[in-house]
Structures are given as C-alpha cells and as structure tokens.
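Board notes (copied after class):
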Amino acid sequence: MDIKRYIKDKKEMVDSALERYFPNRPESKGKGPFPTSLYKAIQYSLFAGGKRIRPILSMASFEAVGGKGEGILPFACALEMIHTYSLIHDDLPAMDNDDYRRGKPTCHKVFGEGVGILAGDALLTEAFQLMTHQAIQELPKHRGGLVLHVIHEVAQAAGMLGMVGGQVLDIESEGKEVDFPTLQYIHTHKTGALILVSVRLGARLGGASEEVLKALARYGEGVGLAFQIADDILNIEGNATQLGKKTGSDLSRRKATYPTLLGIEESKRRAKELVEMSVYTIRSLGAEAEPLREIARFVLSREN
C-alpha cells in the first residue's frame, strides 16, 4: 500500500474534523466567548502542519479490528490536542527553550510566554471536553462505560504516570549520566505512553477482543519507543530545514537519548528491531491491519 497517501488522506480527515469540533473562528463570529489572543494561539499551534501520527494510529487501530464509521474522530482529535499542548509547553523557555517548531516560530515566540502556557492548558482541557461530550452522546447506546474507560486510559497516559512524568525525568536528567533503565523510562513515558494509548483507544472503540488488544498494545509499545529513538537520531543527523527546527539541541543540552548512551548505529539497530517486533506482534490480524504495519515501517524512514 501507499503509506504516504494513506497518511495524507487520514491527516486531511483529522484536520477537517478539528475544524468542525473546534469553535468557529472569532473573526467570523465576533469576539467569541473567550479571548481572541488565546484562540489565535491555539489555532496557530494546532494547525501548524503536524503529521497527526497519534490520531492516525488510533484510526488505523480502530479499522484494523473492524471499526466502522467516524465515531473514532472525536477521540482522534482529542489525542492531537493533547499532543499539541505538550509541544507548546515543551518549547517554553523553562523547558527546551526552542524558537522554531515545524518551520515556524514557536507559540510563545509569537504570542508570549503567558499566553503560550495558557494555550497549552486550554488544549488539554478541550481534549477532555471533546471526549466526555462523546461519552454523553454514547450513554443511551449502552457504550458509556467503554467510552469512560477509554478516557481514563488517556488521562493516565497524558498525566504524571505517563507523558508528564516522563517529561519531568527528562528535565531532571539533563547534564547527568543516566543508566539504560532510566533512559528507557523517559522514552516510554515522555513519548511512548501517548502513542500506546492511541493504539489502545482505537482498538477498544473498534471492539477488539482482549487477545487482540494485548497484541496491539505490544505493537504500540514498540512503535512508541521506536518513534522516540528515531527522533533522537534525527536531532543529530536530520536536516534542520526538513525538520522545521534546529538540530543538535539534544547534544548541546546533554539530554538523555539513545544515541548519547548507545551510539548512532546501535540506536538505529534497536529502532529497526522494535519495528520488526511490532509488525510481528500483529501478524494474526488481516489485511485491515496493513496500515499499522506500514506506519511502523514509516517510523524508520521518515525525515521529519
């Protein structure tokens, strides 16, 4: 299959859904119920050209287990909102202090640090508002318990036991010698947790059996870790123009990364091994899971 075409088509679906789920632009509806500066900061970051890998993984997982229709889209969009909030905060002076993201000045550079922080806060909150709105809609259909369970998983993956916890350890490890278990923890939580829950979310909403869910969870764990290792490598070997942000920042900040601890070649070998393992774990799934297999391979070949 043409995975680049698949990703492009799904990205367009997510972008269109985000336009629908997000409030109308204030310039077309007066000032709106919130400060225009906040809205513009959110719009600037949410539609800055991201690949939408997390929502696409949720959609691919949903379809792989037989899910039909667009019921997955609110949850897919919520995942992208959470991811975007994390990027806004990650770029702040108190964190990575980055000036560019996706080839554009970072949110705080355009709108100021205070609005940047609040834009991230708002996106995180809106993500849960969107998912709980869907839960309310689903309750009459006797799926409320499932939807609430999914929301609980997302909250755990995004919070102190997931992404936020991993990010804290990442900050605390800068400039220090870290062992491999610490590095593994940072990567599986800072990046891997949200990728894993994207796969699990789609599978659960698509009606996966417990056996299939376990296989897809192993797939998600492997892809999530491989994705972060690939990011580590791109930060050293990538083209800054293609990446849309400066390279070499991990080395200058002495961040805990796979290349720093294991070297470039060993990091590439481990990423390849993780992708092969991920693809193997879903071998029992049919042709409907082919996009998941190709997305895993795409992780190794991407240039941004």
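Comment from the instructor: The radius of gyration is 19 Å. The chain has a mean pLDDT of 89.
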